Amino acid sequence: MYFCVYLFYVIIYTIKMSTSATTAVILEKRKPRKDGSYPVKLRITYQREHHYYTLKNNIGKSFSFTESDFEKISCSRPREPYKEISIALSELEKEARDIIESLPLFSFEMFEKKYFSDNNYDDVFSALKSSVDDLKKEGRISTAVGFECALNSLKKYTGKNILQYERVTPSFLNQYEKWMADNNNSPTTTGIYLRNLRIIIRKAIRDGITKIEYPFGDGKYQIPNGRSIKKALTLHEVGLILNYEGKDGSNEQKYRDYWLFSYLCNGINVKDLAKLKYKNIDDGLIVLIREKTKYERKINMRPISIVITPVIGRIIDRWGNKPAYPDNHIFNILEHNLTPTQEYKRIHQATKMINEYVKEIAKKVGITQNVTTYTARHSFATVLKRSGASTEFISESLGHSNLYTTESYLADFEIDEKRKWADELTKF
Predict the structure, then answer these.
(1) End-to-end Cα spacing for the chain
(2) What CA–CA distance (Å, rounded) separates 238 from 362?
(3) Closest C-alpha among 244, 238, 242 to residue 379
(4) Could you tell me how far CA 226 lies from the centroid of its own chain?
(5) Domain residue ranges of the chain, discontinuous segments joined by +
(6) Is 0.70 topped by the overall pTM?
(7) Domain 235-423 has CATH 3.40.47.10
(8) N or C: which terminus of the chain has fewer CB atoms within 10 Å of its end residue's CB?
């Protein structure tokens, strides 16, 4: 009886081992180099057959070490600088194991096709990484960061370096959303990551990379919409910031003015503000196309026209670069010949400084809510709506492509106004 059970498990184990490929990182001692080192290889073993693959670092150089160095790398607790190399080799081996696990049935041919593939869309993670690289080349650093964060989050969730398209089902997406919530991520963050993932899935289906059923939409998985209440200031609160007495020429005054400039100029973001040049000024107007719109819509890009009010004019006179040549930036945030990464860092720093100073000013004048550059855009839209402007006019001013987006900006009215209308219901 016991022998039969033992024999059964031996057979199962033998079958399992015969259908699984194993990996190992080894020193190939058959081919020594002139400096006494040996190349490092990835060895794949399947049904007693061995195949060897050269391992390279992130700049494409092959790994090679002496026997002594390789022992220090391969030990259970390597020290620096060997520890960093050990981690890199472990990640390369894990990548190979992930490919093996993704194959329905292992063969060296199928493994090599995946391992050496030039197709950047073979799986979800490689497609996300390819998008990050393309966005960076286009200078769209902020968008690239969003895709990179989505990639890192999904890798952390799956614990793998490869995510097959077939795994992205409504059930997978629901479980990921729950995992994000359990790890203290907001619905807004989850929504941003999943919208980036949705772009990748759509592209893969459209390009014929995968034939999976589209997992998003009605009756499938719905991406959560994060919404925080009361993003906009009242006109009175904006006036408190405008009339705040700061020291002339101080950073406090400058960054307060940048916030006001954003609010008064149709709620443009800091990137649009930073990229403004004197040639954007034409006959009493500031005319621009939003940076975001340049990439989202290649046709029918509507320029935004902003009337230069006395307050806008004073801000330009106070902080504008001199001389006012057409190709000069209006404000001293960006310079000529910066790389996209340098531009991104400058804009990020300017946004940080505006937020820091305007938050302090808001506290000093008695505004209790959190005030940021994002508040300026919502306040512009909401103040106009309360003043009687049509949604269509506000949508055009914001540079939106549809009214639905504009309506989401106008949904956050202060609680006092809601109470006022609620009181009207009982004035019999």
Answers:
(1) 89
(2) 9
(3) 238
(4) 16
(5) 22-103, 124-206, 235-423
(6) no
(7) no
(8) C
